[in-house]
Amino acid sequence: MTLWIPDLAQAPGPVYQALVSALATAIYKGELRPGTQLPTHRCMADLLGINVSTVTRAYREAARRHLIGGETGRGTYVLGHADSVNLFALPDRDNRQLIDLSVNTPAYPLPDPDLDQALTDLQTRAMTGRLLQYQTQDDWRIHRAAAAQWLALRGLLPDPAHMVLCCGAQHALASALAGLCSRGDTVLVESYTYPGMHALARKLGLHLHALPMDLAGVLPDALDTALQTGLARVAVLMPSLQNPTSIIMPLARRRAIAEVLRQRNGTVIEEDVYGHLPCEHIPPLAALAPEHVRYVTSLSKCVAPGLRFGFLYDPTASGQDLIDQFHTTSWLVNPLMAHIASEWIHNGTAQRRLAWQRKELQRRQRIMAQALPAHIWTHAAESPHAWIELPAGQDANRFCEKARREGLVVTPASVFAANRQLPNRHVRLCIGAASSAGQLKTALRTLRPMLG
How many helices and strands, by DSSP H and E, does the chain display? Predict the structure, then answer.
């Protein structure tokens, strides 16, 4: 823990705001580096001679701005520059000075008439008014059938009755974790895991334990040891185009993971939001060990992020569990978005958009491979993100700050690290976030000299 004592004597306004400003300034200047543990609320209050509630309010506001983050039982840590870790915000399209490749959004076709056509069809069929009313059981059955049809593209044959509709994959993951874990539990994750998992752990009061990885994904022996020793019962894994590393777990490794789950009676929440993108079909864990896997996916990374239509498939759920999940989870899904998503799956629009996404990402990956051949840690032809290895001696946080000064926003490894002792020598580059292949080329021209 760093004994950082800010000077608030000359700061105008409320004390808690002064403390937040001091935190932001210290982070921006590099006085507080990402990963630094801050004093506890009470310790900071004693050091500054203020109320604990004032420190609590300041830390809460700093967390809202993504300057710091708390982990239950482990303290409060500096995340980094607010703009470089605010990964749930969309790029600032009005800021012509920055190319923001920090948000993992799919490439977007322009022009895109599909939504216009869908809304026109609704008006022609006089259905718009119905979508502002409560949906019937028949409506939900149609949506669940569409979800099952989408999962069939991954080689799954799910029972639609066991399909829980959600407002995107993050919502589905939250629902799965809430059903499997209690506050204070430990959840196993890949050593680098995406920020949404960190956010859910903080919200649900869960501890994250990092499982070591190689170029094939999580090591089966590490998972076996964690389950055997009782460290945890649940793991969250992303076998296909893992975020942030873009690793695709090969079939042999998936089979080994499935065998560990059977031997140790463990449970995996399989986050497969990128699973439809690779042209090479590798069965998901849900197909190899269905009784041990809760399967999560959505349309956000390959059809359209704004649809907010995701799925949680739980083949082990009882009838009452499914009824409860319908009322607490599926009921939140927007009927208009659900209807458009179901229509697109049934009429082939979703599949056409998926094919376009694959082709566009392949094109962008070729551009990146030509520009940065020596620095791509893993290469997957249809990945919307890349894991770039920095030269020896470079720190990812400093690299990202320098890149920002050059007009490019990328994300350091420290944002994803489930274990704070992991090396900070990689950055994630979201190639789908570029507005065009031309903008991606411009970004890579900026990046290449910085890599040496």
Answer: 16, 16
Residues paired with residue 217 on neighbouring β-strands, in sequence order = 214
Taking Cα atoms as reference points, which of 30, 18, 120, 126 lies closest to residue 340? 120
What gap in Å lies between CA 362 and CA 370, rounded to an integer?
A: 12
Query: pTM above 0.85?
Result: no
Q: Do domains 15-80 and 84-110+351-451 have the same CATH topology?
A: no
What are the tens digits of pLDDT across the range 323-378? 888 888 898 999 999 999 999 999 999 999 999 999 999 999 999 999 998 888 87
- CATH 3.90.190.20 correct for 135-348: no
Q: Read out DSSP for 149-208? A: HHHHTTT----GGGEEEESSHHHHHHHHHHHH--TT-EEEEESB--HHHHHHHHHHT-EE
84-110+351-451 has which fold?
A: Aspartate Aminotransferase, domain 1 (3.90.1150)
* Rounded-to-integer distance, Cα 437 and Cα 439, Å: 5
Domain 15-80: assigned CATH number: 1.10.10.10
pLDDT of 167 strictly over 70: yes
Q: Which helix (H) or strand (E) holds 347?
A: helix 335-347
Q: Domain limits of the chain? A: 15-80, 84-110+351-451, 135-348
Quickly list DSSP for 317-338.
Answer: --HHHHHHHHHHTGGGS-HHHH
Report yes or no: 148 and 142 within 8 Å, Cβ to Cβ. Answer: no
* Residues ≥6 apart with Cβ < 8 Å to 370: none
Burial of 67 (0-12, 13-18, 19+ CB in 10 A): buried
